[in-house]
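User: Design a sequence. Structure:
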């Protein structure tokens, strides 16, 4: 059983490491992952050997608090109920109160204790040896409120210390308590000196009270924790934004009556109504109406998607225009939005391998620091220095060594990184996948649905003389319509796109391995491959060569014949997605080798390879063989990412170091892949690897500075440089440095929010394509003038006009008096075809220019 728990009292990575060790010792626990950033813990345990209570007891025995997480209680705001308290907001508010109180008392404390050193005036009753006791006692009274509002450091710190697992709070508690205890001892010594007339003793201890150090340490640590917590609150913004997307209510139709109900009450099967501008409350399928749906929040796709009956809609997407009804298919935690939130949270809560280094160090770091502090203090005492000097050294070591920065280095970057991925429609399932992705040096791409659209489309039409594209396509679609073959579907869809009216056919026959045949208007038509034409003794002529050329381009030529002669050839192909070339080029720029796997024949694969510049292609591969190809690459020492559609590629996705499912929506994709891309865009796979590299680079920066800070700070605090350079670290500066280090680490991680997907290449490619299209349109949109002989009346000119306008892409206007026809053509028919049309109508063409 997997269970999530909320853990209280953790302040540093030493805490999380100790909680993890304690729970791991519970019988029946298979795995445990503690997240310091979100203060929760995921435990996988055997229900027959353990229980929630046993896990909670182990956490409490370790010195912390625990409770079962409220669960995915809701991935959307609760309707009617009062909004749940935000733990992060409550913590920030509490720390803000502590901070205000701390500085209200710290400022006069600092003024009284240090003001005379800066030449600042002090009240008369605090001056001189006679008033030393008042001077010291006033500082104690000002320090006590600071200690009280920050008592959490003592409660947690000493509790964990006595449990044998000291943490960051233990260092603060020991350091500040030692300073305060020394101050209290100093008050007694001042009293003794005043009572016995020992002026020297009074002056000595009135100058070494250390109350200001204790107060300053607590205040500065709290300031650092406040800034750190406020920054940490920003790391989960992506999840919060997702959770806030879903509406609180839904408009449901029950028994013909519309009613607005809380979204929690929507049940599977309910019929819901969505009006323009409204958010879609749950997942479902449209039953009536149509709309343009903005899915940018879920998929990152900025352009609204047209939806109609039978199409799927996703919770939290927005109906930009139109009105529709849909049937609820998934509600509550089953919706796509809830699953995305769960995936992002799980990824943020999981541990990357690089985090284990910090955890191991943090687990022994605090006890080692305490030992260093004691050894340093004792050593300086043995060297003949005063107790005050040795105490100052010990406190400085304790305060500057808090391992906050070390513990925050990884989880903050992971959380920001996974959140940033979710913003761009990239769902990273675990921190391990996020880390592994940066090592990828080879990307294996499935062709169909990944590089290409996954759906055949008509790409070329070649016709016989005297036959227009429109006529050939009408015949082709009429003959192919009864067939269920994907190539037939592509031709029928092209005819529908051009709004062509199809003819009724009879005697339809499908010839296995060749094509189809049918009769329309008394003519027997054939549609199929070259073998079909040859067996029916159809002379292809130039079409044979044209078909070979199209085949060489990776297209499938379909030949059409009627009345024993060839009518033309229509090429159908699975077209390459607009961004695929840009993505493959981007992989190359990143130093990642690209391998394409496809079940297509070698000729088609070679055409795609040439078109996109892919380094290596493996053709005629069965789905079960793709996993073997990935394994071969891994045996060569490659780190492999497999990008596929998540269904027939599931074994290869699982085998790869990082499996990337392109196009979410299937359970298999989410289960098999480490990364799920919500859009069917190969550029998002590039972004995923880019994001991984950015996150790992950020983590390494954080760890470097955390280790560097401690490696410099601890020797400095211990007085290593005092004998040679006279450098000695004041505990107050140590507290400030520790707080600053944590804030710096969190702030550095937040820079990841500035990460931008690699879209420049795609934009350039798309703009180039648009430019080529525009140039093409300029070339083919032409005006011509035809001089015609033989027209003598309005009927003649009308007959010529009709003949020309019947041609595909031709618009003609005939001037009877001038004996000319003004023609606008899109270039789909040749000059010879236009001349032939007029000649067939019974007139002579003098010229065409």
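Assistant: Done.
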């Amino acid at each position: 059983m997997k269970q999530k728990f909320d853990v209280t009292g953790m302040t540093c990575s030493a805490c999380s490491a100790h909680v993890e060790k304690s729970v791991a010792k519970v019988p029946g626990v298979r795995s445990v992952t503690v997240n310091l950033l979100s203060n929760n813990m995921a435990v996988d345990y055997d229900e027959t050997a353990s229980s929630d209570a046993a896990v909670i007891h182990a956490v409490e025995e370790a010195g912390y608090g625990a409770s079962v997480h409220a669960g995915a209680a809701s991935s959307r705001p609760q309707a009617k109920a009062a909004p749940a308290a935000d733990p992060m907001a409550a913590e920030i508010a509490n720390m803000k109160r502590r901070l205000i109180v701390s500085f209200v008392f710290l400022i006069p404390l600092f003024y009284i204790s240090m003001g005379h050193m800066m030449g600042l005036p002090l009240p008369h009753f605090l001056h001189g040896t006679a008033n030393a006791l008042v001077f010291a006692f006033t500082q104690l009274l000002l320090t006590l409120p600071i200690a009280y509002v920050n008592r959490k450091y003592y409660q947690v710190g000493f509790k964990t210390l006595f449990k044998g697992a000291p943490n960051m709070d233990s260092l603060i508690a020991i350091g500040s308590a030692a300073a305060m205890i020394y101050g209290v001892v100093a008050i007694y010594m001042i009293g003794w000196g005043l009572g016995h007339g020992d002026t020297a003793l009074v002056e000595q201890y009135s100058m070494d009270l250390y109350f200001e150090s204790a107060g300053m340490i607590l205040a500065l640590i709290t300031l650092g924790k406040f800034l750190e917590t406020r920054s940490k609150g920003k790391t989960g913004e992506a999840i919060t934004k997702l959770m806030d997307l879903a509406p609180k209510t839904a408009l449901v139709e029950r028994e013909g009556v519309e009613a607005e109900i809380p979204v929690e009450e929507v049940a599977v099967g309910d019929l819901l109504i969505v009006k323009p501008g409204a958010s879609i409350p749950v997942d479902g399928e449209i039953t009536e109406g149509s709309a343009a749906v903005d899915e940018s929040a879920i998929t990152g796709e900025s352009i609204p998607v047209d939806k109609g009956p039978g199409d799927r809609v996703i919770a939290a997407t927005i109906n930009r225009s139109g009105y529709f009804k849909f049937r609820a298919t998934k509600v509550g935690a089953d919706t796509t939005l809830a699953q995305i939130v769960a995936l992002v949270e799980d990824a943020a809560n999981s541990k990357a391998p690089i985090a284990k280094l910090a955890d191991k160090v943090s687990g022994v770091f605090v006890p080692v620091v305490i030992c260093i502090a004691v050894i340093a203090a004792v050593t300086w005492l043995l060297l003949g220095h005063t107790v005050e000097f040795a105490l100052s050294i010990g406190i400085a070591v304790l305060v500057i060594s808090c391992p906050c920065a070390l513990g925050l280095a990884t989880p903050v970057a992971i959380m920001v990184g996974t959140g940033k991925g979710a913003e761009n429609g990239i769902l990273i399932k675990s921190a391990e996948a996020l880390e592994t992705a940066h090592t990828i040096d080879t990307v294996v791409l499935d062709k169909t649905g990944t590089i290409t659209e996954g759906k055949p489309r008509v790409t070329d039409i070649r016709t016989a003389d005297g036959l227009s594209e429109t006529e050939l396509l009408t015949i082709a679609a009429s003959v192919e319509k009864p067939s269920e073959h994907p190539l037939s579907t592509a031709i029928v869809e092209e005819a529908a796109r051009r709004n062509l009216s199809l003819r009724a056919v009879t005697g339809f026959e499908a010839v296995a391995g060749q094509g189809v045949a049918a009769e329309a208007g008394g003519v027997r038509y054939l549609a199929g491959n070259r073998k079909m034409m040859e067996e029916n003794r159809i002379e292809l002529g130039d079409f044979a060569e044209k078909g070979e050329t199209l085949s060489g381009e990776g297209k499938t030529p379909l030949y059409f014949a009627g009345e024993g002669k060839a009518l033309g050839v229509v090429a159908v192909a699975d077209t390459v997605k607009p961004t695929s070339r840009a993505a493959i080029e981007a992989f190359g720029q990143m130093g990642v080798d690209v391998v394409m796997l496809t079940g297509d024949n070698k000729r088609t694969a070679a055409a795609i390879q040439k078109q996109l510049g892919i380094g290596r292609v493996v053709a005629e591969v069965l789905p079960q063989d793709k996993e073997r190809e990935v394994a071969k690459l891994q045996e060569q020492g490659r780190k492999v990412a497999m990008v596929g559609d998540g269904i027939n590629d599931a074994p290869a996705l699982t085998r790869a170091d990082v499996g990337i499912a392109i196009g979410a929506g299937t359970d298999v994709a989410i289960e098999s892949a480490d990364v799920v891309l919500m859009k069917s865009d190969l550029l998002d796979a590039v972004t995923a690897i880019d994001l991984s590299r950015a996150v790992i680079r950020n983590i390494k920066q954080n760890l470097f500075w955390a280790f560097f800070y401690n490696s410099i700070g601890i020797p400095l605090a211990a007085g290593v440089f005092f004998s040679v350079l006279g450098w000695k670290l004041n505990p107050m500066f140590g507290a400030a440095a520790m707080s600053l280090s944590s804030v710096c680490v969190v702030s550095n991680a937040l820079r990841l929010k500035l990460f931008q997907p690699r879209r420049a290449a795609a934009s350039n490619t798309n703009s180039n394509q648009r430019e080529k299209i525009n140039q093409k349109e300029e070339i083919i949109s032409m005006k011509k003038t035809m001089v015609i002989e033989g027209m003598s009346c309005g009927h003649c000119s009308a007959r010529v006009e009709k003949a020309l306008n019947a041609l595909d892409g031709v618009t003609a206007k005939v001037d009877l008096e001038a004996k000319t026809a003004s023609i606008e053509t899109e270039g789909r028919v040749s000059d010879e075809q236009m001349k032939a049309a007029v000649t067939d109508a019974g007139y002579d063409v003098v010229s065409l220019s």
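The first helix runs from residue 13 to 24. The radius of gyration is 38 Å.
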